[in-house]
Structure formats: C-alpha cells, structure tokens
Automatic annotation (TrEMBL):
NADP(+) binds at residues 16-22, 110-113, 145, 168-171, 184. It catalyses: GDP-beta-L-fucose + NADP(+) = GDP-4-dehydro-alpha-D-rhamnose + NADPH + H(+). HAMAP family: GDP_fucose_synth. The active site is at residue 141. This is GDP-L-fucose synthase. It comes from Mesorhizobium zhangyense. GO terms for molecular function: GDP-L-fucose synthase activity; isomerase activity; NADP+ binding.
Length: 322
C-alpha cells in the first residue's frame, strides 16, 4: 500500500479504545509515531452530542478511528433491537458530525459484514449493499451501520472530507466479550469448551443447526487492515475487511474444542437462531492493495485462547456484560 496520509506526529482519536477492536487499534498505532487520544465512557458518553462536540473541539484530533458501538452476537441483536439501532445511530452521527465541525482531516468508520442482504451473492461484493432484504436477527444494527457508511459518503460528497468506511467480518481475539448470552460465536464456544473441560463435562452445546458458515478475522489483523486503510485509502466506496475464507459453525466448534483440549461431544440447541446462512465477503478490493492477514484460523484461535486463559485467571476477561 502506498501511503496517502501519514499518521506521524498526528493526533489520532480512537473512539472505543477499551473494546476488542479499539484496543487492538491502539496497539497497532504504537508503531506510527502518532499521539493517541482516548476517552473512557465515564469521561465521554458518545451518545451525548454536546459532550462529543466539546471534547473533539477542545482536543482537535487530526484523525478519528470510530470503533465505538453497541456490539453483540446474534441473540443480543435479536433481543435488544431498539438499543442496537438507537445507540449505534447516535454514536456514529455524533462522532462523524463533530469531527466535521472540528475539521478532522481523516476518519475511518467501522461497519460490519451484516450490512449485506441475507441472500447476497457469495462471496459478497461491496456493491451488493441495499440490493435485498437484511437478516432479521441483526437488521437493526445493520441499518445503523448502513447509515454510518452513508453519512461518511454524504460528508465527502457535500463537503469534500476524506471520511472512509470499512466493513469488517466476524472478529475475535484478545479483549473479546465472553458473556455467554451477548457475545459472538468464537468467544462463546471458547469459554464453554474451557469451562466444560475444567468441569469434566462430556458435552458442549452450540446454538442452532451448526450449518451456517462464517468468515473470521483475528482482531490484530483487522486493526492492521484499518490502519493501512487510514493511511492509504481515500474513496467514496466502503471496503470489505476479511480473511476471504469461511467455515461451518459445527466445524468451527470442533476446531475450538481441539484448541481448548475439550474432548466431549457437541450437541445442538435448535431453539437458538442460525441467522444468515453465509456471509463470506469478497475482499479483492482490500487484497488488491497488497494487504493480507497474518493469522490463519487455527493459530488465531490458539492466540485468542492463550489470552482468554491468562485473563480469566487474572479476573480481567469480560465474562458478564451489562
Ligand atoms: N466484534 C466483531 O465481531 C465485529 C465488530 N465490528 C465493529 O467493530 C467495532 C468495535 O467492536 P468490538 O471492539 O468488537 O466491540 P466492543 O464491545 O468490544 O467495544 C465497543 C467499545 O465501544 C465503547 N462504547 C459503546 N458505547 C459507548 C458510549 N455510549 N460511549 C462511549 N463508548 C462507548 C465501549 O465502551 P465500554 O468499554 O465502556 O463498554 C467499547 O470500548 C464496532 O464498530 C463494531 O460494530 C464489526 C464487525 C465485527
Ligand atoms: C459480526 C456479526 O455478528 C452477528 O451475526 P452472527 O455472525 O450471526 O453472530 P454470532 O457470532 O453470534 O453467530 C454466528 C453463528 O454461530 C452460531 N452459534 C453457535 N453457538 C453459538 C453461541 O454459543 N453463541 C453465539 N453467539 N453464536 C453461536 C449462531 O447460531 C450463528 O449461526 C451480528 O449480530 C452482528 O453483531 C455482526 O455484525
């Protein structure tokens, strides 16, 4: 990738710096010679428009990474539709508008692969957006993310600002949410397998049929891709960020069990939703820049499990999320 925008000596605000992606982006930015600006939720609730405007106006970041959001797995999205639509709309509109007001030169907004239609062609190209109905379990979050992507495009079109959007696939790794009801599939299966192994249990339950397929990317790879795009991408269109490979949930469960060392049987809970059958993204626009992920799935899971074990023992893993 050729750099269009240097981060050296720039002030970069990472919104959502304590989250899994935000903390990975902070780690990745350490190599860029920039000043990293952060604010905890207690200092700055990003739902407070006047607070966000004041904070950004006072600190005048040169660039913003918008990684803050209300995030959760399939059951959380399906259970709390108002929270996922409202909070994500408010957070993204506040940060994008306040960045424009304070003349922030570069902003990257993080969307999600769930913005695409439930039955989009696979692998899903960026132009599949808004070509069909969404997956019902996360349409609320998806509509918020589509709005954020469109808002960046609108500010570019009306005011000429260089605000870009990335659509990450399912992410996992250090700092993930391990709450069994609200998390995504990898942290949930990792924790279930870990606890079943310690308890000597003989079975592990997965949600749904196990037949849906999902693409996964380690969060450190995602952070590297975001920083690369921040420096080298300037365009109206959003960019898919993924590994380019997917796996069926049942196969994933077997892989997680082998990484954790759980040897019992895997059962299905058909009362839980499968969600979209597949959402493998076409990542050729990203790969054409020369970027490639460093982790393949098994080594990524081993890294994530090592982090989980260490932080559970220290009481620092997010096991119960409000
Ligand atoms: N995880 C995944 O699989 C994927 C994630 N993404 C996107 O990546 C981004 C980060 O996700 P991820 O790191 O997994 O999520 P996390 O839940 O781990 O982190 C979200 C962060 O946003 C902060 N936040 C949420 N609401 C507010 C608020 N009102 N005011 C201030 N801060 C707030 C949280 O603060 P606090 O720590 O105080 O709760 C947290 O630091 C999101 O935009 C998400 O949509 C996209 C695709 C996949
Ligand atoms: C990133 C993306 O993530 C969400 O979409 P999702 O990919 O469907 O989310 P998920 O990771 O929770 O599930 C993936 C698959 O896995 C199956 N599954 C099995 N067993 C468990 C389990 O124990 N927990 C969970 N969560 N899922 C399980 C589950 O039934 C489903 O078939 C969006 O809401 C939205 O947040 C978004 O953008």
């Amino acid at each position: 990738m050729t750099d269009l925008y240097s981060l050296k000596n720039k002030r970069v605000f990472v919104a959502g710096h304590r989250g899994m992606v935000g903390s990975a982006i902070v780690r990745r930015l350490k190599d860029e010679g920039c000043e990293i600006l952060t604010a905890s939720r207690s200092e700055l609730d990003l739902r407070d428009q006047s607070g966000v405007r004041r904070w950004i106006a006072e600190r005048k970041p040169d660039a913003v990474v918008l990684a803050a959001a209300k995030v959760g797995g399939i059951l959380a999205n399906d259970t709390y539709p108002a929270d996922f639509l409202y909070e994500n709309l408010v957070i993204e509109t506040n940060v994008i508008e306040a960045s424009f007001r304070s003349e922030v030169g570069k902003l990257i907004f993080l969307g999600s692969s769930c913005i695409y239609p439930k039955f989009a062609p696979q692998p899903i190209p960026e132009d599949a957006l808004l070509t069909g109905p969404l997956e019902p379990t996360n349409e609320w979050y998806a509509i918020a993310k589509i709005a954020g992507l469109k808002l960046c495009q609108a500010y570019r079109r009306q005011h000429g600002v260089d605000y870009i959007s990335a659509m990450p696939t399912n992410l996992y790794g250090p700092g993930d949410n391990f709450d069994l009801e609200k998390s995504h599939v990898i942290p949930a299966l990792m924790r279930k397998a870990h606890e079943a192994k310690l308890a000597g249990e003989k079975q592990l339950t997965i949600w749904g049929s196990g037949t849906p397929k999902r693409e996964f990317l380690h969060v450190d790879d995602a952070a590297d891709a975001m920083v690369s795009l921040l420096k080298s991408y300037s365009g109206d269109g959003h960019v898919n960020v993924g590994s380019g490979e997917d796996i069926a949930i049942l196969e994933l469960a077997k892989l997680v069990a082998s990484v954790v060392g759980f040897e019992g049987e895997i059962r299905n809970d058909p009362t839980k939703p499968d969600g979209t059958p597949r959402k493998l993204m076409d990542v050729s626009r990203l790969f054409e820049t020369g970027w490639r992920p460093k982790y393949e799935l098994k080594t990524g899971l081993e890294d994530a499990y090592a982090w989980f074990r260490e932080h559970v023992e220290k009481g620092e893993a997010r096991l119960n999320v409000a």
